[in-house]
Structure formats: structure tokens, C-alpha cells
Design goal:
Layout (H helix, E strand, L loop, with lengths): L1 H10 L2 H18 L8 H15 L4 H12 L6 H8 L3 H10 L5 H10 L2 H8 L6 H9 L3 H9 L7 H13 L1 H9 L5 H7 L5 H11 L4 H6 L3 H7 L5 H10 L6 H6 L5 H7 L6 H11 L3 H9 L4 H9 L4 H10 L7 H12 L2 H18 L4
């Protein structure tokens, strides 16, 4: 009889397979007992044996064990991870709803699992910043879209930087990124250049804010900074962002073109290098900022610039024509729309932020 059992075990006969399934179910019963019935040490010992049994168990049996473990708040971690990384048909109950999964477990599942695993994690009711970071790192647009729609997902600033870059590459993500509460002005105004007209207006409506509170707080700092024998570069850079005046008045008075309006009048037929450099100098922005404004295919940035620098609608039209946008073009309409809806102070906030962020990052030019 012993020899028959051994032979059956080696050949995988029906009797050993049946006993294996029965033993697996019994071990699962013990692992799923409440803490009042089994000690942690006993649960771990049984879990180690069960994990070994599940390595060669039939998928249907692994699936039944996964369903039971998904409901256990004290499920053994190693066993839980093994089943969570199984094929998604088996892992689904655990990945979707197990409360015993830790952030580290979910980060491992995000790295090693299938796309379906990551989608299920992104749909969980609560997704921590660390798990969101691991899911976002995959770069899967489908996963990222679900994360961005999930109000229970928390996004750290560094992860949002990554998501902003992805949104610049995938138009389907940009609207969702713009609506997230974690999005910061620097990130939004960086994304501005990569999105369509409607989304640019969304960014301006949300982040083109008044700087009155800053201006009031710093009112007495301007004269104090002017009296200092040696200028503090950081203070001066910050005050330049806060200041109510956008143009360099002394440069405008001394300009060979008669000021910024004169530059626009000269630029009607196109911006040459000299006019570009002069417009940047008179408007007190980095050369690279003004170059980006006039090279942009949309018209919103032109409207921001004109309103922030106090140009008239007529000179906005000169600016637009110089940038290559004909009357009646989509860019012309967008430039006029932004010019009409933004106050001078709000337009200055956007223009200063573009300039300030470049200076801060060391990309000024």
C-alpha cells in the first residue's frame, strides 16, 4: 500500500491531488481563523506551509484562497504578496480590496504586476502618496488617468512634477492634471505651453491671481532694499516678482524706439533679433521668455504679455502680427480674449511667474 501511494504521488495520480487540495483548504481554514482562535506565531507557521503548497496548486484553488484572504485584516504578509502577484484573475480580490496590504506591498505589486494589477491599485478607495508615486512611475496613461480621477489618491509634489511631464505628452491627461488640487502654480504655468486653448484658459482662470496681498506685505521693503549699500540678489529678485510696475521705466525713456509701443510698431512685419532683445529689455523679462511668447503657436501668451506691460489693443495687434498671426486667425482670437478677461495685475502675475521660474531654475537667458 505504501508503495502504491508513493507511485501515485510521483505520477500525480488522482488520490494525491485530492489530498493536496484537501490539505490546502484545511491550512487556509487555519490561516483565516480570527485572532481569538489562533496566535500570530501559529498563523505564520501555517502560512509558510500553505505558501509552499500553493506554489503547485491548481489556479482554481489559488483563486479560492485569494478570495478568503482578501477579507482578512490579519492575513499573513508573505502569503498575501504571493497571491497578489499571481495572475490577475487570481490576484484581483486582494489587489482591489485587501486591507492587509501595506504600502510596500502595493509598491511591489505596482512594479512587478501586470497592467491590470496597477489599474486595480489605482482604483482603490485610498491610495497613499508612496503608492501613487510607484503607479505613476510606470508611465501607463491608463493607470495615470484612473489615478487622476480618483479623489482618494494623494499626490506628492515630486509625483505631480512627473505627471505634469506626462500630461504634456498625453493630451488626455492634461485636463485631469489641471483639475487636481495638488497642482501648484509653477507646475501649471509650465504645463501651459503644452496644452490646447481651452486648457490654457483653465490654467489662467485658476492661477492668474492678484498679488495685492504680496504687494501690501512688501510695501515697506522696497524703500528699505533701495537704501542698502549692497543689494541682496534674492530680495531683489523676489521684489521684482511682487512689484506693480512691469516695464523698466528708465529703459523705456531712453529707448531708441521711443518705448515698448515703438518696438511693437516697428515689429509689425516681423521681429528681428534687435527688436526681440529690445522688447525683452523694456518689458523687464528674460530674453528667452519673450522669445517663447512670440514663437508660441497659440495667442494666449501674447494677450498676457500685452496686458501685463500696459500695451493698448492696437499695440497688441502689432505684437500679434509681428509674431506671425494674421487677423482673424485662431491665435488672434485667443490673444484678444485673454487680453480682455485678465486684469493688469493678474496678467503680471503670470508673466512674472514665467520669468521668475526661469531665473530661479538658472535657465535665464
Amino acid at each position: 500500500m505504501a508503495e502504491d501511494f508513493a507511485a501515485g504521488h510521483e505520477t500525480g495520480g488522482a488520490r494525491p491531488r485530492s489530498s493536496r487540495a484537501l490539505l490546502t483548504r484545511r491550512l487556509a481554514d487555519i490561516v483565516c481563523l480570527p485572532s481569538s482562535r489562533v496566535t500570530p506565531q501559529e498563523r505564520w507557521i501555517v502560512a509558510d506551509v500553505l505558501e509552499e503548497m500553493l506554489r503547485t496548486a491548481e489556479p482554481a484553488l489559488r483563486a479560492r484562497v485569494a478570495v478568503r484572504l482578501a477579507e482578512q485584516g490579519e492575513a499573513p504578509p508573505g502569503l498575501l504578496r504571493r497571491l497578489a502577484l499571481d495572475s490577475f484573475d487570481i490576484a484581483a480580490p486582494i489587489v482591489e480590496r485587501s486591507r492587509a496590504l501595506t504600502d510596500f506591498d502595493m509598491m511591489e505589486i505596482a512594479r512587478k504586476g501586470e497592467l491590470k494589477h496597477r489599474i486595480a491599485l489605482a482604483r482603490r478607495e485610498h491610495v497613499s502618496e508612496t503608492v501613487t508615486a510607484a503607479l505613476a512611475a510606470s508611465g501607463d496613461p491608463a493607470v495615470v488617468e484612473i489615478l487622476l480621477r480618483n479623489e482618494g489618491a494623494r499626490i506628492a509634489p515630486q509625483t505631480m512634477d512627473h505627471l505634469v511631464r506626462l500630461a504634456g505628452e498625453h493630451a488626455s491627461l492634461s485636463r485631469l492634471v489641471i483639475r487636481r488640487s495638488e497642482l501648484r502654480p509653477a507646475q501649471a504655468l509650465s504645463l501651459f505651453w503644452e496644452v490646447d486653448h481651452h486648457q490654457r484658459r483653465m490654467i489662467l482662470e485658476r492661477f492668474a491671481v492678484d498679488r495685492a496681498i504680496l504687494q501690501e506685505a512688501a510695501e515697506d521693503v522696497f524703500p528699505a532694499a533701495a537704501r542698502e549699500a549692497e543689494a541682496d540678489a534674492l530680495v531683489m529678485r523676489t521684489l521684482a516678482y511682487i512689484d506693480r510696475r512691469q516695464r523698466d521705466r528708465e529703459a523705456n525713456d531712453a529707448s531708441a524706439y521711443g518705448g515698448l509701443e515703438g518696438v511693437m510698431e516697428q515689429a509689425v512685419k516681423g521681429f528681428g533679433p534687435d527688436l526681440v532683445a529690445e522688447a525683452a529689455r523694456l518689458s523687464n523679462v528674460q530674453l528667452s521668455v519673450f522669445e517663447r511668447i512670440i514663437e508660441d503657436m497659440g495667442g494666449e501668451a501674447l494677450g498676457v504679455f500685452a496686458k501685463a506691460t500696459g500695451l493698448s489693443r492696437r499695440h497688441l495687434n502689432y505684437l500679434r502680427l509681428g509674431a506671425g498671426h494674421a487677423d482673424g486667425s485662431p491665435a488672434a482670437r485667443q490673444a484678444e480674449l485673454v487680453f480682455d478677461i485678465l486684469s493688469v495685475n493678474k496678467a503680471q502675475t503670470v508673466l512674472r511667474y514665467w520669468d521668475w521660474s526661469l531665473r530661479r531654475s538658472g535657465q535665464a537667458g
